[in-house]
Amino acid sequence: MLKHLRTTATAAALLVSGTLLIGAGTAAAHPGKPGHGKPDPGTPLRVAADRAHVKFGTAVNTTALADDATYRRITAQQFSSVTAENVMKWETLQPQRGVYDFTEADRLVAFARAHGQSVRGHTLLWHNQLPAWLTEGLADGSIDAAELRGILRDHITTVVRHFKGKLYQWDVVNEVFEEDGSYRNSIWLEKLGPGYIADAFRWAREADPNVKLFFNDYNVEGVNAKSTAYYGLAKQLKARGVRVDGFGIQGHLSTQYGFPGDVGANLKRFADLGLQTAFTEVDVRVPLPADPAKLATQADYYRGLLSACLGSRSCTSFTVWGFADQYSWVPGVFDGEGAACLYDESYRTKPAFDALRAELRQGRH
Ligand code: G3I
């Protein structure tokens, strides 16, 4: 399914015998006015981001977090927000019907807490990474539509309650539109009709009135049929009293396609509707092998998205979908493309890393 992703602490960061300690205190959150002062050359992204009043996040591979000390150190040092790359999805959280397993997800939340990081929840409803008991039960007819609705309600309620007070945003529905703006054909649409989207937001809201509830999708950076479908739905839901708080733009880009147009205008129209926005899964793949020219273009693309975020008051966070090439999902899905992250496989930073930090230093504009 992803083949068509086309467009596409602060001073208290101490490295003590391999363990990075970051001051979790909020006193470090806004040390100066945006754009003022000159951070040291080695300033972590999260410190520059604090000064620009935006969260700077990464998706986290929890296996790497457990096994790879360098990965762990960089996760703590550079990022002020984390998203579970996989372990808050259905197949992990509800591996058997009615049996929930929060072990891995709770470990990530504990790590984030220990390092003064915020957590984005991903995701309460998707058509991928569903547990076998669910897909098989639907396929053989042992689970019918009415039951499916109950299962969805139970999952959202249980999961949102479990993390209540610990997350700042949830991707409530992920990738629910096709490229042409029609509803994505999924088990959810097929069995429940499009009303499942409003239901998902209502149930999540009931379970935690404070966490911000988001749409999330790819190929919605600019103004196009798909992003317009979200815009229309957000308006419609608002008119019906169903509150949606935010629009998450994944930002999976490839340098072989042009940089998406109208990103600023797109953010603005959602902001005008009263929604927050966020870049939630940014990476920029290049045709392999990478070379300096391709990495320079990659840096421009990363910087372009961050600049749009910093140009909109509505934009709360900028999250990269992993930071180290050896753990990236990209090469497994896109033949001949890769090198999509801010660090290479030996943990050397790329020009994109410097470009993002330079952009953060400019602050909001
Ligand atoms: O958990 C199994 C493990 O038990 C097994 O041994 C191993 C063998 O391949 O597979 C493991 O599952 C993998 C899973 O990631 C956890 O590591 C799947 O094969 C693999 O397909 C899965 O890929 C994830 C993908 O979503 C699934 O569609 C990627 O890591 C993850 O980066 C990616 O993330 C999505 C976002 O959630 C939504 N937006 C697009 C984005 C990129 O595809």
TrEMBL record:
Residues 1-29 form the signal peptide. Keywords: Carbohydrate metabolism, Glycosidase, Hydrolase, Polysaccharide degradation, Signal, Xylan degradation. It comes from the Bacteria. Residues 48-359 form the GH10 domain. The keyword Hydrolase applies. The keyword Signal applies. SUPFAM superfamilies: (Trans)glycosidases. Its EC number is 3.2.1.8. It catalyses: Endohydrolysis of (1->4)-beta-D-xylosidic linkages in xylans. Belongs to the glycosyl hydrolase 10 (cellulase F) family. This is Beta-xylanase. It comes from Streptomyces thermocoprophilus.
